[in-house]
Amino acid sequence: MMTATKPVRVIAVTGGKGGVGKTNVSVNLALALSQTEQRVVLMDADLGLANVDVLLGLKPSKTIADVLDGRCGLSEVMVPYNDFMSIVPASSGTQEMTALSVHEHAELIHAFNDVADQMDVLVVDTAAGISDSVINFVRAAQEVLVVVCDEPTSITDAYALIKLLNRDYQMTRFRVLANMVRTEQEGRNMFSKLQTVTDRFLDVTLQYVGSIPYDESVRKAVQRQAAVLKAFPKSKAALAYRQLANKVESWPVLTTPRGHLEFFVERLVQGARTGN
Ligand SMILES: Nc1ncnc2c1ncn2[C@@H]1O[C@H](COP(=O)(O)OP(=O)(O)OP(=O)(O)O)[C@@H](O)[C@H]1O
Ligand SMILES: [Mg+2]
After folding, report:
1. Which one, 63, 125, 245, 269, has the greatest CB density within 10 A?
2. Are 73 and 67 within 8 A, CB to CB?
3. How far is the CA of 23 from the centre of ligand 1 (A)?
């Protein structure tokens, strides 16, 4: 049995559609939280091309796979980014998280238990789509941040994701962030569109978190392999990310079992066991 730790915010950043800005949101939200001296761990759950290591120009030598094999602890895999933030890089272990052996389950639980006391927030950047791996990470988190943008399939993909999580995993509460908006109204409109369909067909509650403006600084920062918050701290996007972090800090931290890191890890492992 794991020992009880204090609640940790576990936020999965997802969206269904590819390229909506999930990784940029994850990285900059994590960084903004760390700048307010929250101890943040950013977990990369996407093996894709433009993942967290690439965005931050990191070259990790150890991965989750080493943890699962019992070769090292999670703290040795975590790459420190600043005094308050570190990164758990993606690895083939991320993909294999849906096919863990009993031994690997135990290793993962121990690994997280060891670092639970050293973190306040865990941000999980997920891959695009609604694969088992994505669903497994999202359903284990207490807060689900669905990123949408004004591209044709973004709303329908977000809807498909929410529908699946609701229908198969009884999840009912989702936070929605509009990215790359030209005006704040555009963000609210996207949210309304999504809410109209969820209200009609599903029994879920969507909460609008706000928007991140379309900002060339984000693209420039990505090219430099840096977070926009660091490369262009005065940009409009950076300001919006800091506002997002302030909002996140105002969300109630769940003191129920769901609010504990153990819950997250147990759900991850449970999903792996049942093949979901
Ligand atoms: N606020 C923004 N303003 C301008 N461009 C943006 C913004 N957010 C993201 N982008 C652009 O969109 C691209 C994709 O962003 P990102 O990699 O974060 O998306 P993603 O959802 O993680 O993609 P994937 O599904 O491939 O993982 C970035 O490289 C960047 O150029
Ligand atoms: Mg990404």
Report:
1. 125
2. yes
3. 7
Which of 13, 14, 23 best tests ligand 1's pocket when mutated (most atoms within 8 Å of CB)? 23
Question: How many other CB atoms are there within 10 angstroms of residue 49's CB atom?
Answer: 6
pLDDT reported for residue 221: 97
Question: Which of 17, 24, 27 most suits a substitution to test ligand 1, by most atoms within 8 Å of the C-beta?
Answer: 24
With beta carbons less than 8 A apart as the criterion, state whether 155 and 194 touch.
Answer: yes
Predicted pLDDT of residue 1: 45
Whether the predicted model's global pTM rises above the 0.90 cut: yes
Q: Domain limits of the chain?
A: 9-271
Nearest residue to 256 (alpha-carbon basis) of 132, 164, 173, 145: 173
Beta strands in the chain, from DSSP E residues, in sequence order: 9-14, 40-45, 79-82, 85-88, 121-126, 143-149, 173-181, 205-213
pLDDT for res 195: 97
Which CATH number, 3.90.1150.30, 3.40.50.300, 3.40.250.10, 3.30.460.40, labels domain 9-271? 3.40.50.300
* CA nearest ligand 1 atom 16, residue: 21
Q: Which residues of the chain have pLDDT under 50?
A: 1-2, 276
